[in-house]
Design brief:
The complex is a heterodimer of chains A (179) and B (507).
Chain A: H1 2-11, H2 19-35, H3 37-40, H4 55-77, H5 84-111, H6 113-127, H7 133-153, H8 169-178
Helix pairs in contact in A: 1-4, 2-4, 5-6, 6-7
Chain B: H1 2-11, H2 14-32, H3 37-49, H4 54-78, H5 88-99, H6 103-135, H7 141-157, H8 163-178, E1 180-181, E2 188-189, H9 195-198, H10 203-221, H11 238-242, H12 247-262, H13 267-282, H14 294-318, H15 324-335, H16 342-347, H17 349-380, H18 385-404, H19 407-425, H20 431-451, H21 464-506
Antiparallel strand pairs in B: 1-2
The chains are: A mainly alpha (179), B mainly alpha (507).
Chain lengths: 179, 507
């Protein structure tokens, strides 16, 4: 009994709400990956252990599972702070913004970088409750600056929008190169 | 002399000077914005710099890296909100000084101490260069493997109270570096027969997800917050002369910053903690610490600004990054086919010296900018955090998408963004993942080439530097175990005495 208490004390740490959910999920993820080592890596004949393709994934996953297990035990032994599921909901709420971001990524090749960015910043500003003329103007100005600096000035590799093809000739060439 | 002239020629290109100016000033603004920080800015800018000359890209990054901590001191001192995490200690003494009506004195001292720390670290870097150039060629595959292993161990153990989490995340980073087509035997590793995984998981995509997208998501989902208004009056130059009164603390703190910056995985927090403790123990007024002590402020700011220069030492000499920001810079080197390490000092010394001069110049530019524009900066930082989230997410797109125009990269970065958000909410460290990815790759390659010439296990450590590194690894592990046992015993003793006290009171 005394040994168990000592172990509990050794593993005790400060934990935030939701810690145990993450610890459990990460442990499950580690065990799953470790179980796939044989199928997802190969052992090559006439090759020493240190040069085997399986060596480093196996080492990293063994350590990952080992530490994840200890982290989970630590979470079990530490005093709980209430609010676990509220915290999980907070994590899940971020997915909404991820979806907006991916939608933005999908429309850039269609509408072009500048129009998509203006649309994205204005819609997102509205979504986060800042839909005042001041912030919408700031969002548009920011989007225009970003698009011009990165695409026109720094010539960062972003494809031109398919929409630009419909523009009249002089504007089309300009839009394809700079917007 | 010829090398110096060659370095000056490299630096005199207009693109380099513009990058230095933009990086330095941009870094100060980014550092002053609570919730952004150098890591987010560097992650976003990283892909954009690939189109530049190596020195231009690196100067821009160095500018942001070296100057963000200067900017972070402003909100820390005036509104009790650290701009970057490393300025948290600055609030302890900076804000009480502001409350006493000494805001301008606190800012002025912070700028001067930061400048001293910054310049001190570059001078150390320059002085250590000949030594580095001498030692670096003796670092063969096994030494670099051991140094990388030491880096991983240090980054795990440096996260006191979170060693298990740091260990699992560092291992996760190493695992991520192994995904994809293995480069020697051309076998697939953890691709699950999906073509997008064949080329592996890109470091920059992970960095952008974990640092930039996660921060944007955090700001967007969390409650809106706007930093309070502040204004500073008075002469900001006065701190330069006042710093002479604290020259001992400034020197010791900067030295600790340099020392901690050189050791991979340790960084600003340990440097600040040690220098602050030193300053408090040797002060004539130790009770003032935490209540507006100028000495505490100098110790904190001099130490954290000495780290960036020193962190360049292992990066340039051995190609081993000590923390996440230098890991990002390493990728800039690689993209431009400039391989940091022993050969850099032999073949491209002018390039190395140009970096040193750029580091000195950036400190001068930042100081001049801050002394003249602090009130302007205080207006800029009045951005609501949710709008800041919109800005970061918009900029993150440029970073990820411009890499390969891949929607998959954006989806992977978003997944790491959510993962980073969870880690940040749980106060778990992100840096071990990045260092695991970078150092894991280095360890795999170097172990393979080192073992080819090793017949028995002892051969691995038969060279002096390898033996020293191995001994250091063993020593660190033993010391860590000893510390854990001691802390545990002390805790038990404390609990026993508390229990006996309670029973006496009850009796």
């Amino acid at each position: 009994m005394a040994h168990i208490k000592t172990l509990q004390e050794l593993f005790r740490r400060h934990r935030r709400p939701g810690d145990i959910v993450f610890a459990l999920l990460f442990l499950g993820f580690s065990i799953f990956l470790l179980s796939q080592v044989y199928g997802e890596t190969s052992w090559v004949k006439r090759t020493k252990w240190f040069a085997q393709p399986r060596f480093w994934p196996a080492v990293s996953l063994i350590f990952m599972t080992f530490f994840a297990l200890l982290h989970f035990i630590g979470s079990l032994c530490s005093p709980r702070i209430l609010g676990r599921w509220l915290e999980v909901v907070f994590w899940l709420r971020s997915i909404e913004f991820v979806l907006y971001f991916l939608l933005y990524v999908a429309i850039v090749p269609l509408l072009g970088y500048l129009p998509s960015t203006v649309l994205f910043t204005c819609l997102l500003t509205t979504r986060v409750g800042l839909a005042t003329p001041r912030f919408l103007m700031a969002a548009s100005a920011f989007a225009i600056c970003v698009a011009l600096i990165f695409r026109a000035f720094l010539q960062v590799k972003i494809p031109a929008g398919q929409l630009y093809e419909a523009f009249p000739d002089p504007l089309k060439a300009f839009a394809l190169t700079y917007l | 002399m010829e090398t110096l002239l060659s370095s000056l020629t490299i630096l005199s290109q207009w693109q380099v000077l513009v990058a230095l100016l933009l990086g330095s000033i941009g870094g100060v603004i980014i550092g002053a914005l609570p919730g952004v920080g150098a890591a987010v800015a560097i992650a976003i800018l990283l892909p954009a710099t690939f189109a530049f000359e190596p020195i231009v890209g690196l100067t821009l990054m160095l500018g942001v890296y070296g100057s963000s901590m200067y900017g972070g001191a402003i909100p820390a001192i005036l509104i009790n909100t650290p701009g970057t995490a490393v300025n948290a200690l600055t609030t302890y003494d900076g804000y009480p000084m502001t409350k006493r009506g000494e805001g301008h004195r606190a800012l002025s001292l912070a700028y001067s101490a930061s400048f001293f720390g910054g310049i001190f670290s570059v001078v150390c870097l320059i002085l250590l260069s000949p030594l580095l150039a001498m030692i670096a060629p003796h670092f063969g595959s096994r030494e670099i493997f051991l140094a990388a292993l030491l880096g991983i161990i240090l980054v795990v153990l440096a996260h006191r109270g979170q060693v298990f989490a740091a260990g699992m995340l560092a291992s996760f980073g190493i695992f991520l570096s192994t995904i994809g087509l293995e480069p020697v035997k051309y076998t697939k590793r953890f691709t699950f027969d999906m073509t997008w995984l064949t080329s592996g998981i890109n470091l920059i995509v992970v960095v952008l997800g974990l640092f930039a997208i996660s921060q944007a998501l955090l700001l967007l989902v969390d409650k809106d917050h706007k930093p309070g208004k502040a204004h500073v009056d008075g002469n900001l130059f006065s701190g330069l002369s006042e710093l002479f009164r604290f020259k001992r603390i400034a020197s010791v703190s900067s030295s600790l910053g340099v020392l901690m910056g050189m050791i991979p995985g340790v960084g600003e927090f340990t440097a600040q903690f040690l220098s602050y403790t030193y300053a408090q123990k040797t002060s004539k007024k130790p009770d003032d610490f935490g209540n507006g002590s100028p000495e505490g402020l100098v110790a904190s700011e001099a130490a954290n600004n000495a780290v960036p220069g020193a962190a360049m030492i292992p990066l340039l000499a051995l190609g081993i990054p000590g923390e996440a920001l230098t890991a990002m810079m390493l990728s800039v080197f690689y993209v431009h086919n400039v391989i940091p390490g022993p050969q850099l000092f032999q073949g491209q010394l002018d390039f190395v010296i140009a970096i040193y001069i750029a580091l000195i110049l950036l400190n001068v530019i930042v100081l001049a900018f801050l002394l003249s524009s602090t009130n302007l900066l205080l207006k800029i930082i009045q951005i609501p955090t949710r709008f800041l989230g919109v800005m970061i997410l918009t900029l993150s797109f440029v970073g990820v998408y411009s890499l390969r125009n891949s929607i998959t990269d954006c989806a992977v970065a978003s997944a790491f963004g959510v993962f980073g958000l969870i880690l940040k909410r749980l106060n778990l460290p992100i840096v071990p993942i990045i260092l695991g990815m970078v150092l894991g790759g280095i360890m795999e390659v170097k172990l393979r080439s080192a073992m080819a010439r090793v017949k028995s296990p002892l051969d691995f450590v038969d060279r002096p530097i390898a033996a020293i590194l191995f001994a250091v690894i063993l020593l660190i592990l033993i010391l860590h175990v000893r510390t854990v046992i001691r802390e545990h015993k002390a805790r038990r003793e404390q609990e026993t005495s508390e229990n006996s006290e309670a029973s006496t009171q009850q009796g």
